[in-house]
Write a structure and sequence with these properties.
The complex is a heterodimer of chains A (354) and B (251).
Chain A (H helix, E strand, L loop, with lengths): L2 E5 H11 L4 E4 L7 H9 L6 E4 L3 H13 L4 E5 L1 H16 L4 E7 L15 H5 L10 E3 L4 H18 L2 E7 H5 L1 E5 L26 E2 L6 H22 L2 E4 L6 E4 L2 H16 L4 E6 L1 E3 L15 E6 L6 H8 L5 E5 L8 H11 L6
Chain B lengths: L23 H14 L6 E5 L7 H4 L3 E4 L5 H11 L4 E7 H7 L1 H9 L5 E6 L29 H4 L5 H5 L5 E8 L3 H19 L4 E7 L3 H4 L3 H15 L3 E4 L9
Parallel strand pairs in B: 1-2, 1-3, 3-4, 4-6, 5-6
Antiparallel strand pairs in B: 5-7
Helix pairs in contact in B: 1-8, 4-5
The chains are: A alpha/beta (354), B alpha/beta (251).
Pfam families (chain B): TPP_enzyme_C
InterPro entries (chain B): 2-oxoacid:Fd_oxidoreductase, THDP-binding, TPP_enzyme_TPP-bd
GO biological process, one term (chain B): cellular respiration
Chain lengths: 354, 251
């Protein structure tokens, strides 16, 4: 199949249906509205179900019910809406239910704005809900990558019985660009013997719950989750990196920002400055080990985000004092200019006065 | 020997954790009997609330999901949309359904979601220790209304059956009581009719069950049943508020 010109949110919806998603529960919020709009039109064509819920809270709880019933299910929203879903995400994690949640981020805090931002990194990777849990967070940098990651997101969710978040920004959601809706690699289908499908009078009831009043049982759940998180960290961490060995400066960025950083890297390369790039594809698990590949000539690491510095915490953990860590960010819906990022790199490389 | 009474196969062998004299056990039994009588126990999927009946999933002998506080109708929506042939029900108290979960139950009804909601109204928050509920009567004392609920401060209690009767998608709405054996039998019939409404695919079905909370009301079980009859029924009138045939058959 050749490339087609699509808007990001519609491409995400299309990829989800191709990945086997058959249930979608959502609520309108800008800039993700084309996802539910697409699903409402196209899910019925494949025998799927779209329900517009009365709130983001109801939508995520419909996801919980459908996931517990064994359905391949998704919801999407944008930052303030994702904030409302956090209770449900905690319950999904506690009950070990697979689902995909798309966040097309906009600026905050509060009602914020509707322009692209990356200010929900903490919310996504540190857990906005209560309890000791993690969810897998994937951050596509292009529309093609968003589409390609969708099959993997559903497969990971099923394999580990865990919610997976596709963390996009408004730029990816709203931008139109050519994408190829190609066959993605699929993992083998996973049986769901735990799902509530009716006992048929043939087995003991299946129970979906996150309630454990016995402290020993609740600790057991948390130990099980922790072991699983270790396995996910070992097996499913994904990152792209370029030119780390000889780099004078290494830039860490994800999503749309990483795409802009590539231009800044080109500008610096043209001026003879070797610049490396670390682009985490999974934000949790975070590719800390990738930083170990940075060569001895590195003068500093620059973290660039559309926020006031959230992934910065992980970059500092990864750097662990080995290099000075610098930050450049634009926020509130302002998208960084590659020339400004290049200037920051030049300063760190000693080519410009501070 | 002839068996004249037996525990319903719709219930598990787990011992109920409810307080002495609490009516949750009766309602569990009525639901279990309805599921067995209608031959849908094997396809039944229930949703438990947050509140006294949070452990309902241990008692019903069918697949169960535990919902977040108030969200049972949304969870049930997700389940029913995946398994349209299943008999899906929610079991919710008055704090769960009439306060934090008001939006979810109203909109499940608006969508005509083909689920059955059993609403246990005992006019108080039981599990958390007797706080005022949206259904607490004016003058009734609660730990957060120590001098009794006043209309000036908290308004009058919410009549959920009457509210849902205004929603077209709600095809069966009835309020019943458990204060004597005749009314228990009538409650059983209502629950069965509600499930029949769901099985026929007619829309949302809802049974409000007036219940007692002897522990938090500070009454003996017998006094509590009497208090229910004397105080709750005058405000929460019994009867069918909506039936699939249309109209209200309020008695």
């Amino acid at each position: 199949m050749g490339k087609v010109l699509m808007k990001g949110n519609e491409a995400i919806g299309s990829a989800a249906i191709r990945a086997g998603c058959r249930y979608f529960f959502g609520y309108p919020i800008t800039p993700q509205n084309e996802v539910p709009e697409y699903m409402s039109r196209h899910l019925p064509e494949v025998g799927g179900v779209f329900v517009q819920a009365e709130s983001e809270i109801a939508a995520i709880n419909m996801v919980y019910g459908a996931a517990g019933a064994g359905g391949r299910v998704m919801t999407s929203s944008s930052s303030p809406g994702i904030a409302l879903k956090q209770e449900g995400i905690s319950y999904l994690a506690g009950a070990r239910l697979p689902c995909v949640i798309v966040n097309v981020m906009r600026g905050g805090p509060g009602l914020g704005g509707i322009q692209p931002a990356q200010s929900d990194y903490f919310q996504a990777t540190r857990g906005g809900g209560n309890g000791d849990y993690r969810i897998i967070v994937e951050a596509p940098s292009t529309l093609q990558e968003a589409v390609d990651l969708m099959q993997e997101s559903f497969d990971l969710a099923d394999r580990y019985r865990i919610p997976v978040m596709l963390l996009c920004d408004g730029m990816i959601g709203q931008m139109m660009e050519p994408v190829e809706l190609r066959e993605a690699d699929r993992r083998p289908p996973v049986e769901k013997p735990w799902a509530t499908v009716g006992t048929g009078g043939k087995r003991k009831p299946n129970i979906i719950t996150s309630l454990y009043l016995n402290p020993a049982e609740l600790e057991e759940l948390n130990l099980l989750l922790a072991a699983q998180y270790r396995e996910i960290t070992e097996r499913e961490t994904r990152v792209e990196s370029i030119g780390l060995e000889g780099a004078r400066v290494v830039v860490a960025a994800y999503g749309t920002t990483a795409r802009i950083v590539r231009e800044a890297v080109d500008l610096c390369t043209a001026k003879g400055i070797p610049v490396g790039l670390i682009r985490p594809i999974t934000l949790w698990p975070y590719p800390y080990a990738e930083f170990d590949k940075i060569g001895k000539d590195c003068l500093g690491v620059l973290c660039v985000e559309m926020s006031m510095g959230q992934m910065l915490d992980d970059v500092k953990i990864a750097a662990n004092g080995r290099w000075p860590v610098h930050f450049y960010g634009r926020t509130g819906g302002v998208v960084p200019d590659p020339r400004d990022i290049a200037r920051e790199i030049e300063v760190i490389a000693g080519r410009r006065p501070v | 020997m002839k068996v004249i009474y037996d525990k319903s196969p719709g219930l598990t062998d787990s011992a109920l954790h409810y307080c002495p004299g609490c009516t949750h056990g009766i309602i569990h039994k009525l639901i279990a009997e309805a599921l067995v009588d209608l031959d849908v126990l094997g396809s039944a999927i229930g949703v438990a609330p947050v509140g006294c009946s949070v452990f309902a999933y241990q008692y019903f002998n069918c697949d169960m999901q535990e919902a977040a506080h108030g969200r049972a109708p949304a969870v049930a929506t997700g389940i029913k949309r995946v398994h349209p042939e299943a008999a899906v029900f929610t079991y919710q108290g008055d704090g769960d359904l009439a306060a934090i979960g008001t939006a979810e139950v109203v909109h499940a009804a608006v969508r005509g979601e083909k689920i059955t909601t059993i609403f246990v109204n005992n006019a108080i928050y039981g599990m958390t220790g007797g706080q005022m509920a949206p259904t607490t009567l004016v003058g009734q004392k609660a730990t957060t209304a120590p001098f009794g609920r006043t209309e000036a401060l908290h308004g009058k209690p919410l009549r959920v059956s009457e509210l849902l009767a205004t929603v077209d998608g709600a095809k069966f709405v009835e309020r019943v009581s458990l204060h004597d054996p005749a009314h228990v039998r009538r409650a059983g019939r209502a629950i069965r009719e509600a499930f029949e409404c769901q099985i026929r695919g007619e829309g949302f079905s809802f049974v409000e069950v007036l219940s007692t909370c002897p522990t938090n009301w500070g009454l003996t079980p017998a006094e509590a049943l009497h208090w229910l009859e004397e105080n709750m029924i005058p405000y929460y009138s019994l009867g069918k508020f909506r039936t699939p045939e249309g109209g209200s058959k309020n008695d």
